[in-house]
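are you around this afternoon, could really use another pair of eyes. what follows is a protein written twice so to speak, once as letters and once as structure tokens for the fold. i want to understand how the tokens follow from the sequence so walk me through it. anything you notice is useful, everything is just below.
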Amino acid sequence: MAALRFGIVGSGWRAQFFARAARALPERFAVTGVVTRSAERGAQVEREWGVPTVRTVADLLAAPDRPELVVVSVPWPVTPEVTRELVAAGVPVLAETPPAPDVAGLESLWADVGASGLVQVAEHSPFMPAHQARRAVVEAGLIGEPTSVQVSSTHLYHAVGLIRFLLGVGRGPATVRAQRFTAPLLDPVARDGWTDATQPTPAGTVLATLDLGGGRSGLYDFTDNQWHNPLRTNRVVVRGSHGEVVDDAVTWWGGDRTVLTSRIDRRTSGVEQDLDGFDLTHLSLGERVLYRNPFVGTRFADDELAVAHLLAACASWLHDDGPQPYPLADGIHDHRLGLAIGEAAETGQAVTLPVPHWA
């Protein structure tokens, strides 16, 4: 299997996830270069990441080791311009979320590059092991026809993408209703670590419903800084005609006056007398393996595993004519629904979106 050779435009926090995947899995992924705006930042990246850097996209593409794919991980307003430049050069793109900042930007980007088929979006949430396992439960038919998903975990376009993934619904019309509440909450941890805060401060929570048609719905619940605040844990519910998944608990109809409940078990090595090192091995429900980690040995956290899965899906797409990992149309649709959540929360009015032209 040939390694996927990819470049990166940008050197921020999120870009590092892709570089780490290549460093840990050199037989599968290779970073050909990173575009940084300054030579000073470039020198730092070369020293800390162990990869070459250049100053422009043109330099990245002109290098002897031309990338097969370029990850675009730059500020929102810059993403569309870099994406257009790469598509014009005929290079496949994996654009970080969202692919454009607002509705006008999404429309313009789709008009310019949508027909190229070259643009994927780095929506990693559905690639997380726990969500892959939940989707496997749905696909196995244990809970019957999936009808609703509740997500209190991540925000806006990430949550919308997860709702659609777990329901198995496409890019159809939707009606969004939302409201924002403010209440005190202690915020002990942020992205940079412990805050040492000891008193609650006002925190906003947005509650939204998404009517996705055909009796299918989503419930969105997100509190400011929920990604990092350990006082607000994840909650994911998938409901179906014959049962439901609540986080790791699966309840389903067993037939003949029988209701069954079992838990999705996370198997990890490196616990107590297991000397193989801490690693996720698989997720299972009874004797049914729902997810098996193909990257054992990396010691990756779930978020890092999701990025590795996303890159592997890109490799399959480019090398083996596999399915598109997360096409631009999906990324645009998820962000458009995320923007509708914000609009509905701000105005207090329902926002109805017709079938989009990128569907």
Summary: The mean pLDDT is 96. The longest strand covers residues 174-185. The two ends are 33 Å apart (CA to CA). The chain is about 30% helix and 30% strand.
